[in-house]
Design goal:
Purple Acid Phosphatase, chain A, domain 2, 2 domains, six-stranded mixed sheet, alpha/beta, 13 strands, 280 residues, five-stranded mixed sheet
Length: 280
């Protein structure tokens, strides 16, 4: 099986003040490039965690509506920004709503060892499979940072894909190859990260062949008059229909609470509540 491995997405709508690009437009353009690449190679897409930029993301209603078709069927590790629970619960989080709606899926594959952020201490290098994915600070020896991290070490895996740390690397330690594609969108305070062209990795789980694919980055001039989307009644009803269309069932109270936290219009929340009761 082939997989497209994507670094931490950190999806958000508004860019930090020091970022000059049209952040959300850039994100959508990169996601589109990734989808084309996945289709060309008949590959599944896996994010290495931190799908959203925070547990309850601002503009969640707008983000999820505009990205719904683009990220449908994507997989992701559960990162520290995706769950605020030490056991990895997705209840009441932006990630959890889209996971429950069937838009995105938690990455767990029989042929890959997946270590979510709350499972990172289980990573010992003892492999059930030959490829591991982990959301944790694992970095090459000599990396200088101001926090604790795990150094790359030789183990039973052929390849270990690392998320959480936002800088890219591809290093061999003995017979083990450690690869981090870097964060796709997360802003940092360093010029190095701001100027780096993002990339994704294509890997074949049977042959262990790895290919790096840099993504094109549009300049401001190439994005013609980007207009910030506005929430309105027509848009909100379409968003509500999107949630209902995905046939959410069971206890959806956590979804309703999340929508309220995101300050979604009360009429829209009531509309969704009524529709979900009809689905039951």
């Amino acid at each position: 099986m082939k997989y497209i491995i994507v670094g931490d997405l950190h999806i958000k709508y508004k860019a930090p003040t020091f970022r000059k690009e049209t952040y959300f437009e850039e994100l959508k353009d990169k996601i589109n490039q990734i989808n084309i690449l996945a289709k060309e190679n008949n590959a599944k897409i896996i994010c290495l965690g931190d799908f959203f930029n925070s547990y309850v993301e601002d503009y969640f209603e707008l983000i999820s509506y505009e990205l719904n078709d683009m990220i449908y069927g994507w997989y992701s590790l559960i990162g520290n920004h995706d769950s605020k629970d030490v056991n990895g619960s997705l209840k009441g989080t932006s990630f959890g709503v889209l996971e429950k709606a069937g838009v995105i899926r938690v990455a767990n594959f029989p042929e890959l060892d997946c270590f979510h952020y709350f499972e990172r201490n289980k990573f010992t290098g003892k492999s059930k499979n030959k490829i591991a994915l982990i959301h944790d600070y694992i970095m090459p020896k000599g990396t200088k940072e101001f926090f604790d991290y795990k150094e790359c070490f030789e183990n039973e895996y052929k390849i270990v894909f690392c998320g959480h740390y936002h800088y890219p690397f591809d290093v061999m330690v003995g017979r083990t190859r450690y690869i981090n594609p870097g964060s796709l969108m997360r802003s940092t305070i360093t010029e190095l990260q701001l100027k780096r062209n993002p990339e994704v990795i294509l890997v074949d789980s049977e042959t262990f062949e790895v290919k790096h694919f840099p993504l094109k980055v549009k300049s401001l001039e190439e994005i013609s008059n980007p207009v910030e989307s506005k929430l309105n009644n027509d848009f909100s009803s379409k968003f509500a229909d999107m949630l209902v269309k995905n046939r959410l069932t069971g206890d959806n109270n956590d979804i309703i609470q999340l929508l309220k936290k995101n300050k979604v219009d009360d009429n829209v929340v009531q509309y969704i509540e009524n529709k979900l009761k009809e689905v039951k």
